[in-house]
Amino acid sequence: MNIMNNSGKDSVVTLGGREFKRVKNGLDEAEITSFINELIKERDELAQSQNHIASLTKLAETTIVEADRLAKQIKAEATEQAKAESAAIVDEVREQAQQMAEKEKAEILKMANEKAHAIISQAEKQSRLLLESKKDKIREELRNFANQQFGYLLEKLESLKQQAAAMQADFDNKLSHAEEEKMPETAETAGEKSAETAAAADDGNATATKENKVLDELLKPIEDVRQTEKSFDLASILQGEDRTELGEPQWEIEILPPVDITKIMEVMTHLDQLHQVVNTEMIVPQIDSPSILVFLREEMDLIDMLRTIPAVAYAEEVPDGSDAANGKTRKARIGLSENTAPREEK
To answer: What percent of the chain has pLDDT over 90?
Structure first.
């Protein structure tokens, strides 16, 4: 495209699509000036536009950089927040898991304790049943032993009675024969015979007295057993009566082996005859070591009293460190003597 065209009219010149009048000395200066000013203006506008575009470009670049920085910051913050939230979630899950574990542990312990209590209760029940069975067996054995001893003593009594009756009959027979065999003699002879008869009678009486004394000594254990039977119901003692009305015993006397039921009954009989004693009972807490429970109506020196009983070889109190004034049952221990003959006074 030609910047400058002639339109056929000699008075007009077209420049850059714009017509200029031709003057005498050339183109119209005013129009050229106006055109140049417009070009300058357009250039300035283009320059401003360029500056504006450059500013926008710079702003865009700055915005991109800032956006990238913000994106990185947001990403970092999001990462940190995610880590914090993740840690919080992990802690919460761990706490919940621990709570669940503690709960399950508590439930397991509860179940274990319940099972343990059930096992212990069952064991205690079986132990009580076994103990009662053992006690019943021991009571039965003691009862049988006592009955055997009593039967044996009764047999001995009957035998001694028969022996005494036989000796008495023999003595009477000899005495009657001695009287029938008297013959007529002088007064001196008669006196001598009478003296001999009297001496024989005295000897017979002395023999009878001695035999009666021996018989009394042999019968003493039997009388003790009879007296014991009057004072006690053996079955009730061996079976253990209810002591609710009597309350707690003031003394428990442990009897050390060897055990002799006759001597034990003698000790109980002696104690029951004391006015300070309300009642006595025999229990069997251990197989070879029965005990006597003593219920008092008033205080007494039981140890000294036990030492005076012939069937007791020795007696002592068993200290347990508690105050007797608090109503707790006091303990004593005795050993039975080898025989029940009265002790010699020193």
So the answer is: 19
